[in-house]
Write a structure and sequence with these properties.
Layout lengths: L7 H20 L7 H8 L3 H7 L3 H22 L5 H15 L1 H10 L5 H11 L2 H4 L5 H24 L6 H26 L1
Helix pairs in contact: 1-2, 1-6, 4-5, 4-7, 5-10, 6-9, 7-9, 9-10
InterPro entries: Homeodomain-like_sf, HTH-type_Tx_Regulator, HTH_TetR, TetR_C_Firmicutes
Protein name: TetR/AcrR family transcriptional regulator
Keywords: DNA-binding
């Protein structure tokens, strides 16, 4: 039935439109892409595009929001003591499954607010329990440091076309984070 959420034709059309913009973003910046470009590549008419999205920016924003909603859902579903393993693995598997979009978001889009969004997402996590021994006065530095470090590792992973598995990247991130957490904790003690 037309118009019902989950209709196979609608799902297929949205997927074709999303695939189209991802392909175009490999060649151009978002501000250079037109609705006509997307429609030609997706083999849909403009009316179909406008039934779902306002413009290419809205389409990309929708795709980014869907990805981040999944990450927030993982945070909500994962116990705090499993963040560094289960949560990180789920997020990296999600990135792997959405490789083309994540390459665009993490590596190619200069004007997006990815870091800010990830910091907001990280702040939804119960960081007080993660770093109980780290004082509140320094925890925001630690969080920003870890998020930026994780982004750099994920960017490198994506730029190299994901040669390691998500579980190998979890090990890399956790080993780097542990080393740096210990260094930061020692630095905090020294500053006091």
């Amino acid at each position: 039935m037309v118009g019902i959420k989950g209709n196979r034709r609608v799902v297929y059309t949205k997927k074709a439109i999303k695939d189209s913009i991802l392909t175009l973003l490999e060649e151009k910046e978002i501000h250079q892409i037109t609705v006509t470009d997307i429609c030609k590549r997706a083999d849909v008419n403009r009316g179909t595009f406008y039934a779902h999205y306002k413009d290419p920016h809205d389409l990309l924003q929708t795709m980014e929001d869907e990805l981040f909603h999944k990450i927030v859902k993982y945070i909500d579903e994962t116990p705090v003591n499993e963040y560094s393993d289960s949560l990180l693995l789920n997020v990296l598997e999600l990135i792997s499954e959405n490789r083309a979009l994540c390459k665009i978001l993490f590596c190619r889009q200069r004007d997006n607010k990815l870091l800010d969004k990830l910091i907001v997402i990280a702040s939804k996590a119960d960081l007080e329990q993660i770093s109980e021994e780290f004082s509140k006065s320094y925890s925001h530095y630690y969080m920003r440091y870890i998020v930026c470090g994780c982004i750099a590792i994920v960017q490198t992973w994506l730029e190299n076309d994901l040669p390691e598995s998500p579980s190998e990247i979890v090990k890399i991130i956790n080993s780097v984070s542990t080393i740096n957490y210990n260094d930061l904790t020692q630095a905090e003690i020294t500053l006091k």
